[in-house]
Design brief:
11 helices; 295 residues; two-stranded antiparallel ribbon; 12% strand; alpha/beta
């Protein structure tokens, strides 16, 4: 597959300008390289690695290149540098890429259907200012169609607002050659943390972060959420925090696959099965050594 940057007209892909992002310190690293501790963590977006990278970001001793931020690259354009795939890293950041062969490198995989759903939700939150838990299934499917249209015509690094949709396979291999030494399924993060502690003597707690919420009570819940959004600017901050802490558990719950059933509807279902074909096999192989059963 060619990796020449494919630039589509903004109107065709219905691109929206990304939210402005600043990166002032080391607190938001994505890919993390540590010669001192002899590891390299390649963070595949939306694969459950947020807790791990937040715990390890200050271990990076390679220059903090791959932070959670947007850059304007002279050849790649507007990209989210923290989600740079390996083929691009090899070309544009060869010094960092070379560390992968010198250390214990690892990554986390995930079922492509659930990852795509999570990525759509993340794009809504991060770049469109839309709460995915408060919009209709039809709206989520519309946004998924925009993603499918854009990614289907792309042969390079995606622009910023589509950074979560790069194939997982592009974070573990280059030109068909496996680069990452250890690949763990998201279903077995506990084993990863055990192995990481054994190899580095660093303890990382097993926590879930950056999860997606959904509104309870359907349309009524969404209406209440919209009403709160309208009056919130006029409510004192101290009171707003109290109300949010009290009401959120009543109106919100952790999202389930049912909340993103659009991934099993056509044409999105066929797009995922085709575009992420290699990712399904990658995740299957990652689960096999651990005896993880399919859900």
């Amino acid at each position: 597959r060619s990796h020449e940057l494919h630039r589509r007209p903004q109107a065709a892909a219905r691109l929206r300008p990304p939210a402005p992002t600043r990166f002032a310190d080391t607190a938001a690293m994505a890919h993390i390289f540590s010669r001192k501790h002899n590891f390299a963590f390649i963070h595949i977006p939306k694969n459950g690695g947020t807790n791990l990278r937040e715990a390890l970001n200050r271990c990076d001793d390679s220059g903090y290149h791959f932070g959670a931020r947007e850059i304007c690259h002279p050849e790649l354009g507007r990209i989210w540098i923290g989600h740079l795939p390996l083929w691009a890293m090899q070309i544009y950041y060869p010094d960092q890429f070379s560390i992968l062969s010198q250390t214990w490198s690892f990554a986390i995989t995930r079922d492509p259907h659930s990852r795509f759903a999570s990525s759509v939700a993340q794009r809504c939150r991060q770049f469109l200012n839309i709460d995915p838990g408060r919009v209709s299934m039809a709206r989520l499917k519309k946004e998924a169609m925009i993603v499918a249209e854009y990614m289907s015509g792309l042969s390079g690094v995606p622009q910023t607002e589509f950074c979560h949709f790069t194939r997982q396979i592009d974070f573990v291999q280059v030109s068909g050659n496996l680069v990452i030494k250890s690949i763990y399924p998201i279903e077995n993060l506990g084993q990863l943390l055990e192995d990481f502690q054994a190899k580095t003597k660093i303890v990382v707690p097993h926590e879930k972060k950056n999860t997606t919420s959904a509104v309870r009570f359907g349309k009524m819940g969404r209406a209440l959420g919209e009403s709160w959004s309208a009056v919130r600017p006029y409510v004192p901050t101290s009171i707003s925090k109290i109300l949010r802490a009290s009401l959120s558990p009543l109106l919100l719950r952790q999202a389930s696959p049912h909340d993103f059933s659009f991934v099993h509807e056509e044409p999105i279902y066929s797009f995922i099965n085709d575009y992420y074909r290699d990712d399904f096999e990658l995740h299957r192989r990652a689960k096999k050594p651990w005896g993880v059963e399919d859900a």
